[in-house]
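Quick question: what would this complex look like in 3D?
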Amino acid sequence: MRGITKQFPGVLALSKVNFEVRKGEVHALVGENGAGKSTLMKIIAGVYERDEGEMFFKGQPAHFANPHQAQAAGIATIYQELNQVPYLSVTENLFLGSEITRGMRLDWTAMHRKARELLAKLHLDVDPRIQLSKLGVGQQQMVEVAKALHQNAELIIMDEPTSSLSIREINDLFAIVRELKEQGVSIIYISHHLEETFELSDRITVLRDGRLITTRPVAGLDLNGLVRLMVGRDLSEKFAKEKATQGEEMLRVEGLNQGTRLQDISFSAYAGEVLGIAGLVGAGRTELVRAVFGADPIDSGKIFVMGKEVQIRSPQDAIRNGIGLLTEDRKQQGLFLKMNVRNNITMAVLNRLTSGLGTNRRKEIALAQSFIESMAIKASSQDQLAMNLSGGTQQKVVLSKWMATEPRVLIFDEPTRGIDVGAKVEIYRMINDLARQGVAIIMISSELLEILGMSDRILVMRGGRIRGVLTHEEASEENIMEYATGVEKESIDLFKHTKAE
Amino acid sequence: MSETTTSINQTTKAAGSLVRKLIASTGPLLVLLVLAGILWVLSPPFRTPTSMLLIGLEAAAIGVVAAGQTFVILTSGIDLSVEAMVSFSGVLAAVLIAGTNVAGGQIAFGIAAWQAILIALTAGALIGMLQGLLITQFQMNPFIVTLGFRGMLWGTALVWTRGAGINIHKDAFLSFLTGYINAGNLKIPMPLILALVIYAIVWFVLNHTKLGRYTYAIGGNETAAKLSGINVNGVKVIIYGISGLLAAISGILVMGRLQSGAYQNGTDMTLISVAAVVIGGTALSGGTGGIWGTLIGVFIIRVVQAGLVYLSAPSNAKDIVIGFIIVLAVALDVARRGEIPWLQRRVRKPKV
């Protein structure tokens, strides 16, 4: 691929990226969230069309208008979330869309036979007639690989294939990948687990902010160097960060557990500070704040608000105790798109606005107006529907809803996702204002610059646990990534050693 | 990214949304006026005030049911039990008041009509709330739960009446509730007045109380409602209770007018109430619409039905027309949301 550019409205997702995969090569693609890995893969797989650039497959110019064409050409993709029908049999899944027929009838004998052959190639000892959902996740993944083989794929894209696999299953998968490689199949491997990419791949391509940073053979790289390549850049954005004076403890969480998603979480948030939560996707950050907010049940753990233990079993309990949550996905979980600005702002405080039988319209209008002015909400009137507002304005409306509850602790989950730069700066300023007024702020963000620029302290999570707590002064992109990916000094050295052998 | 996408969608959709808005807000009223106008021209007997009031009277019972259905559909639920509830509450009240079973036999000892009515209405509300509890606490599908209760309630009415009806003794209070009030030389049906009062109350609840706001919020975005600290399950239980209560009130109105509690009293009311709500502009997916639209929807259906009578259409054909209206209503609902792919113009990919 040469000079691939992809633009989404308002965002340059990929800029003049060159990318090449050789026959029989395992090529790892790494980068932070939002670096453009998925976009690049989706262009290869025919999900998106490129805006600029050329693509060649087996030396021929290639253009895939849809995933089907890419598959027909021999490119298979195994997505992070499996695209399978759990209630159909293994065979049915393998042949979905390419069933073998004899006349009008489905030829089950032939299909089961072929399925057995494919599974045997992958050393997968299962009866193809059983329902797919009866298999483990790892085996389901293998079925997906078998499907790719069945389609005679010459290039297989694997997007985070190990995220839900056990160690044994990962080893099996790696063995298969190596075997496929022997057979001349090329593999593009995307993973957040850097050790994996080292173990498996021949070459590594690093993307950052939609740009190609480098493509290098694994042999000349070490993990630390790779991390630096992934994140290293200047602080180009400015944050109006003022050093906060840490006030009294507003929220304390002790020994919080929730299945395997959250384990032994303890932390405190203080008045006047911004507590950042960093980590990769799937590290348990959103799960943690939802648990604290009472949106999901917890197995064990204590929550203290202003030193007093409280029972939080539902969002109502959380709000009563002065905790607010601005969710990651404001359209799906925060806004009432079909309702107007006023009703959105007052939704969480109608109790206070009800006098006698009905809601007090005058008070409601006054409250909404005060927020529209103080937050500079750009709406034509209070009656404008939320769905017709821009992303930044919508976020301000949701923020107003929570500020109306006069919270002591306000949690932001990815507060600036999908918001343009101007509005971002405004949101940062509002967060800082709130902190100065004595609200304890907890902020999840996948943007390292945002976390570094805004937080007084940073919790780094991985695998449902808090792996490190850094102060504003200690934190750097490198040490956050170290905690977030689990790449620590010793393991790097160890790895170098084995690699040298 | 999402921000720019929305703003672009806005401009391309602006023209379409204006048309949709017109359909949604004034559309139903316009349809009603046109239909009534056609009937006015074609049928002289329709032009009398008496016939208008008759349509009003007939609209009252189904209207009350549709008011409850409006609450439920606004939360993106559905209540299929209402027609059986109409029959059930009428039969229950009739049994309590006592009278003669058409199938033979007397129910000798009864209680006062107001007591019987109170019991029937309480039963309606409680059964509705029970359905709400099953839907929220067991995560059951409202379609199935209310369909099941439809069977149970209808069956109970059948068993109590032994497949016939209970003709009640004449009762002053019930006659007052379901009779007429003389205003000059016009006889205004009491059920119509009661229905309009109920509509006024429902309008107030939906527009000026927490419960109303939460109803819209749940239908618009249940997740956001939960995360805003709204007791979603509690509100839903109340709403199915309201639907049950209003259906029970309708049951009393029908029973009182017919002086008979029979299992057929509620026939067709579920489908018609849903159709009225949807014709009136409330989305089946919930979150938008309102009681004013439902009122218009009820009258549209009643005018069409009256039209069939005045224009001497064979009475057996009425089901065809009702069925057609229902399909049309759902088509309208989809069209309003702009979700019919082949009706949408392809939006060109924006270049930035």
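Answer marked as accepted. Confidence is low (pLDDT under 50) at residues 1-14, 345-352 of chain B.
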